[in-house]
Amino acid sequence: MKNPYIPYEVKILEARYETPGDRCIKTFKVTFADEKVWDTWSHLPGQCAMVGIPGVGESMFCISSSPTEKGYLRFSIMKMGKNTTALHELEAGDSFYVRGPLGNNFPLEEWKGKNVITIGGGIGQAPLRPVIQWIRDNRDDYGELTVIYGARTSADHCFKDEFEELNSCGDACCHLAIDVEEEGWPHFVGFVPQLLMEVSPSPENAIAVTCGPPIMIKFVLQNLEKLGFTPDQVYTTLENRMKCGIGKCGRCNVGHLYVCKDGPVFSYAQIKDIPEAFA
Amino acid sequence: MAVKKLNKDKEKEALQELTKFRLIAPAKSDEVVIFKQITDPGEAFLEYGNSTVPPKKVVFPQTETLFRFQRGNPELREKNVEEEGTTVIFGLRPCDARAMSIVDRLFSWDYEDPYYLKRRELTTLVGLACVEPPSINCFCTSLGGSPFGTEGLDMLLADMGDHYLVRALTEKGEKLQETLSAHLEDAPAEEEKKAEEMAARAEGKIARSINTEGIPEKLPTLWEHELWKKVSAACLGCGICTYLCPTCHCFDIQDEVEEMGEGRRARMWDSCMFSEYTLHASGHNPRPTRRERTRNRISHKYSYYPKRFEVIACVGCGRCINLCPVNIDILEILEQVVDAS
């Protein structure tokens, strides 16, 4: 068996900024330096990988591409600490290291035939992107796809061009929001939980998935309950500081659950009674 | 395999025989006893209570290399644990061996940890039964252990005065017994009965205890209970309770760059009692104070671990009580958990 602590080298095919500012987000499209790794690699939407540079460190990120997108992986990374700052210095042609896939995935098999509503905020759209892409690439297996997404300003929206394309092709119904008024913004102004109430999706035969800042998640969960969604119809991802990613090093637990192994994907039913999940 | 005896006048010879392996034994270091590699049998100190640092460090070193790298060279050179060679830990206490068998569950769960498991495979554990409880804070019998306990051990020695009674417990232990055969004699038939009586006497001398029944299920219900603030109020956050705990296994991973871009990725013991342990890059910390960290330490050992691995991650060695600089006592905490409503 492969040593789970040894990462694979990946080559950057494309690197581009999603958002500006101090905490800018950069998306890397990468492939394995050793093409043979693709023969053994398989991931599903929601799964993560440890991403880093030897000599700097590694941190856990969701894989923001769907396995239906062949020949590359995507990571969308916010500049935050030492490792992400070093990663942001890299450009196409450079390499970094990836260890994974780690963690569980969204149960997309179980969701077949259902309407899916994704509710994202800021960088929280990164784990939702593979869900959307997966449904688009298996369009007949799923019902309606509703995408609700907000960020502080229009410039802070990730994957901007993809939403436009998604709306125009008819695969999904997109609802976008920014926190405060901007000239020329044609969509909703306000917070994501408010937009959710505005869109008011039906809970019937539906699954809601939400990822974003904790404060947004808190109110989205409350509003989903108001709309009639039961805890087992609602999914989210948790994050915590991680080192090993394989359930050994200890730190990422919320109650008895390891976010790295038992998560990052949890149904609200699984975690609603674990207070530490929302700490 | 028959029970043997090792006369004390042959003890040094036997240890000499074992130096052909990497021999780890209790030895004096300044004021304390620690486990260390010995090449001279005279260094072994078997008349000890228990070591300050548990022998877990032999199979789970305080710092160990995972792989080495050279900037500009994509090849990562994995640490080969096999190079450390066959190891014998001689004279460890039954609680510390039992701790290893508890931690084995974590390191072999789901993803196998190659470094830890390879070391375990290469290591033979020779226990030394506790004829007297090593400390006033021993409570192994509350957790399913005992002064003459064999769980996790390959061989058990019991000090009978002028000799040790030697019992091989596993295949590894039998192999070791063969290695030592020139120094061993057959034990008289009545010896085993005598050892049983000694074991019962030692058990009777254990002064402290806790009834653990119901604690794993109760702990999550006390999440917001005021007891956590009380029991953590004196805590300095020094982490000694976790560093010196034979079942604590949490670690950090850090990269170290040495000269000319040559470096290593290493893992090292970490402690849930440190604030940096759970600190996010964003500055958010889900366990911001010692209240949350103490709650996690106790809950991990007595609730989360048994929920997943069906065993409490504590062996009752008493080190965290004996060595806490502000006298925090895990048994007092557990008593408050039991009494809480």
What does this structure look like?
The complex is a heterodimer of chains A (279) and B (341). Chain A has 279 residues and is α/β, with parallel strands linked by helices. Chain A is built from seven helices and 15 strands. In chain A, the strands form three sheets. Chain A has a seven-stranded mixed sheet with strand order 10-9-8-7-11-12-15, sandwiched between helices. In chain A, strands 4-3-6-1-2-5 form a six-stranded antiparallel sheet, covered by helices on one side. The longest helix of chain A is centred in the last third of the chain and has 13 residues, at 214-226. Chain B is of the alpha+beta class. Helices cover 31% and strands 21% of the residues of chain B. Chain B has twelve helices and twelve strands. Chain B has helices at 11-18, 56-59, 94-107, 114-122, 171-179, 191-204, 215-218, 227-232, 240-243, 290-309, 319-322, 330-339; strands spanning 4-7, 22-29, 32-37, 63-70, 73-78, 87-92, 123-128, 155-159, 163-168, 185-186, 251-257, 262-269. In chain B, the strands form two sheets. In chain B, strands 3-2-6-7-8-9-1-10 form an eight-stranded mixed sheet, sandwiched between helices. In chain B, strand 11 and strand 12 (262-269) form a beta hairpin. The longest helix of chain B has 20 residues, at 290-309. The radius of gyration of chain B is 21 Å and the shape is globular. The N and C termini of chain B lie far apart (52 Å). At the A-B interface, strand 4 and strand 13 of A face strand 4, strand 5, strand 11, strand 12 and helix 10 of B.
* Strand portion of chain B: 15-25%
What is the largest interface, and how many residues per chain? A-B, 38 and 49 residues
Average pLDDT of chain B works out at 96
Order of helices and strands of chain A: EEHEEEHEEHEHEEHEHEEEEH
Coarse structural class of chain A: alpha/beta
Structural class of chain B: alpha+beta
Over all CA atoms, what is the radius of gyration of chain B?
21 Å
Helical fraction of chain B: 25-40%
Helical proportion of chain A, percent range? 10-25%
Strand content of chain A: 25-35%
Strands in their spatial order, largest beta sheet of chain A: 10-9-8-7-11-12-15
Main beta sheet of chain B, described?
Answer: 8 strands, mixed
C-alpha geometry of chain B: globular
Alpha plus pi helix count of chain B = 12
Widest beta sheet: strand line-up of chain B: 3-2-6-7-8-9-1-10
Query: If helices are DSSP runs of H or I spanning 4 or more residues, what is the number of helices of chain A?
Result: 7
Sketch the topology of chain B as an H/E string, one letter per element. Answer: EHEEHEEEHHEEEHEHHHHEEHHH
What's the story with the biggest beta sheet of chain A? 7 strands, mixed
Overall 3D shape of chain A: globular
Poorly predicted regions of chain A are none
Gyration radius of chain A, rounded: 18 Å
